[in-house]
Amino acid sequence: MIAAQELIEQVLAVSVADDVAVIVADVSEASLRWANSSMTTNGSSVYREWSVVSFIASDNGVSVGVVDSASVDAGDIADVVRASEETARAAAPSAESMPLVGASDPDGNWAEPPSTTSIEVFAGLVAPLSAAFDGPDRLFGFAHHVVRTTWLGTSGGVRRRWVQHTGSIEINGKRDHGTHVASAWVGAGTTDFRDVDASALLRELDRRLGWSRTRVELPAGRYEVILPPSAAADLMIPLLWSLSGRSAREGRSAFSRPGGGTRVGERIATLPLSLRTDPGSPGVAAIPFVATSSSSEDVSVFDNGLPIEAIDWIANGQLAALPYSRSGAAHFDAQPAQAAHNLELRGGSEATIEEMVRATQRGLLLTCLWYIREVDPATVLLTGLTRDGVYLIEDGEIVGEVNNFRFNESPVSLLERANEAGASERTLPREWADWFTRAIMPPLRVPDFHMSSVSQAT
Questions:
Q1: Which tens digits make up the pLDDT trace of 74-104?
Q2: Which DSSP state fits 192?
Q3: Buried b vs exposed e over 386-408: b needs ≥16 C-beta within 10 Å?
Q4: Rounded CA gap, 37 and 375, in Å?
Q5: Distance between CA atoms of 292 and 302, rounded to whole angstroms?
Q6: CA trace torsion 123, 129, 131, 134 (10° rounding)
Q7: 0.85 exceeded by the pTM?
Q8: Which residue from 92, 229, 389, 412 puts its CA 20 to 30 A from 50's CA?
């Protein structure tokens, strides 16, 4: 297989487009899966993904054509380049046209081969899982590790490389209490599994299954709720995705100011919380430059190679910034800004979940959310279901498991109403773990979380 760097240089050499960007990703994956307390599959794989983005200029503007490929045959390079150019010639001129990002010194590791992983990355999980498989609970789950080496090269002289390590473990346990079967979930995000304490995860799973010995049926309504970091992340990630300078300027978002403009500078969280993305954040580091083969409202293929900076989108409770592509920033007289592929919410106390539970007279510990969907983009209203553990708190103690609910909530409104945030920690967002694993979140207390109906999901 041709080296990624050589692939990029060959594309640039054979292209006859006015400009071209090439993105190559060599991916190495390893996984373990288990069901009914028995290992089912394990293995590793490698593959390549690459894209050619051609820019063709005409009297009417610049048109863009993109072709993706998974071929590892060097003989296919010219055909992919020609197809990308033909796609550009057939396309309408882009409304976001900008000069490509200027040349940069090649990354110091540009010439290095791709990084890889293997099944050995899970060595520390084997003994704890094997012991747990012999226990009374039925365990299901998986561990997954991906090492993605990305190279970006453009005709403008950009040469960037980044290695992204992404790992996760999820364990679901089921316990027969005689009158009912309880289900609980735990999970963790990681870069290399060296910081994953599988025994601690299994102890937490056992604790949650123990809470489920007593079953309590509750009606729909508004409840005081404690959201652990994982559930908080599952609600804050859609908030991050809803941040858009263009949609706010055009009056289409929760961050549009009535009468025109945006809500930048307004207080949107009662607590002094800060919502931040930072490609250099320890433990959740992410690619520090734009590398995209498709454009969206605030991300542009013309910006490939643009550095991604650390940004506080919300600072001490106030909306501080919105993302813009370079084209959008020029149009709206703003600063270009791109979100890194991670998320941190900080600014709470040092309180643990246990301390927050002890301070609760009556409420719910809401451990897992799933099937979250956006209902209203203008308010970021979400709907979804609870899953694998909703627990009743009375007089500072967890007294049992309750039925599942459908909820209707907006993370924007939650920030306005949340009256306590605890200590932020690395967490795995369960709902979005297939796409988004790098999050640092606190537990949140919401005094009136809206459970719109009882769910029959078990």
A1: 899 999 999 999 999 999 999 999 999 998 8
A2: S
A3: bbbbbbbbeeeebeebbbbbbbe
A4: 38
A5: 9
A6: -140
A7: yes
A8: 92
